Amino acid sequence: MSEDLELIDESEEESAELNSEKLIHPETVNLDKEIEAISESKELSKKLLNELEPDLLPSVLFSTTSQRLRGIINDTEADVLPIQTNNTTHTIRLNSLTYVDAIYIEGVGYSLYDSLSFRCYVDKEVVFSKEVKCHKSRSDFAINIERLVTHIEIKTPSKMFTSTSLKSICVTGTELKAFGEIEKTFREVTSTKLDILKKCNEATDKFEKYKDEYSEIFNTKEKLQSEIEKQEKLKESCSGDLLYLNEKLDKRKKAVNIAATELSDRQRDLESLDRDLTKEREKFNQLAKDISIKESELRTLKSNINLFPSELSDYAKEGGKSLNRYMLISVLPMLVIAFISIHLYFSAADLADYVKDNSGNVDLAEVIISRLPYVLLSFTILGACSSLIYRFISEAIRITEQKLNLSKVSIIAKDVSDASCSSLDFSDDEIYEKRVSLKMELLKEHLKTYIREDYHYKEKSKNKPIESVEPNDIDHNSDDIDDEVDNDERNE
């Protein structure tokens, strides 16, 4: 029966689709009338089917021995007292053979782990048996019987510490005498079903017939509408492009006018720049001439530079490094001297305490003789370290004095050189020779510890090389002196 109703629903959906498409045909009105008749037949079939649903059995059909149990069966009164029950079997007897669809029991005090046992009989034969668990959230039980029975047994579980009871029992089903009416209703539903199916088939055939015809019409209509929309969009696009091009043309005209104005301004600026460029070129030529003259003077001045340099940063830097090196090396002997002195002091104090405590048992001469090598070795180390420290400090003082002497020589050389050229009628060669002679005398004074006192610079002509210091004039007895001379000459 449900499949027939689904078929009717499908026919109604097809009719709704047909109406939504708004097909215009001479037989469409008749088809709508047939669809309305089918809908009415469907409603009538649903009504008849609802009449066949099982309902609560009337209380007169039950003939239980217990009046209290009979009072809670299919009784809707709210003031019915529940039946206290614990491990008890309750029998519900019917006056005649009856179709029982389902049983619903509302209990009190049952938990999720409790269950009721159901048995259904036809006379003395068991036709149905099952145990049903309690509902998860309520003390209710529900079971589908769907059998013809004469009596039903319900057995409750045993509860030790909890009081349980049955509040109501609902039994649904149908009497046997009502089956005649059910058969009549079923025949009416079957007849109506056949009429509905016949009308649905006819309507479906007509729908399929018209659907193919109208599909082509709607396809053509959609294509035309699509073409119209494309043309409209093309029209709007062309209109927009035309407006855009007109605006662009106006902007270009304005830009041309502005560019013409700027061009005239740029031409005037270009003429002005040409005039300025001519002036700058004349200035540049004059500056080039001045630069060539100054370069010539500069080369002349550079050729005459033969004085002592006044910048002593390199010599001062090297001297400072040597000074720091000597002072750093002298720290180690100082630490050795300090360590040995402290050790000797505390050892002498311990020895004095030991001799004082053991004055009668200690030979002082033996102790002094035994400690004499250690004392001599300590004094030797102290003497060596002191000599090293004295040597390093003397070298640091010597470097400082050399830096001061070189500064003095530089200052004197500069002043004397400036004064020697002032208000004197000397040729360039004579000035050059005098300056070199002065320079060598000052170097001799500065390096007097390394050069013989009877050494004199011999002036030479400009075409001959100047004679430098002869090898025999320098004392080669010490390698340290040679190294210091080389360093001084490089720094100068």
UniProtKB/TrEMBL annotation:
The chain crosses the membrane at residues 326-348, 368-393. Keywords: Coiled coil, Membrane, Transmembrane, Transmembrane helix. Residues 461-492 are annotated as: Disordered. Residues 461-479 have a biased composition (Basic and acidic residues). Residues 480-492 have a biased composition (Acidic residues). Residues 207-290 form a coiled coil. This is Uncharacterized protein. It comes from Motiliproteus coralliicola. The lineage of its organism: Bacteria, Pseudomonadati, Pseudomonadota, Gammaproteobacteria, Oceanospirillales.
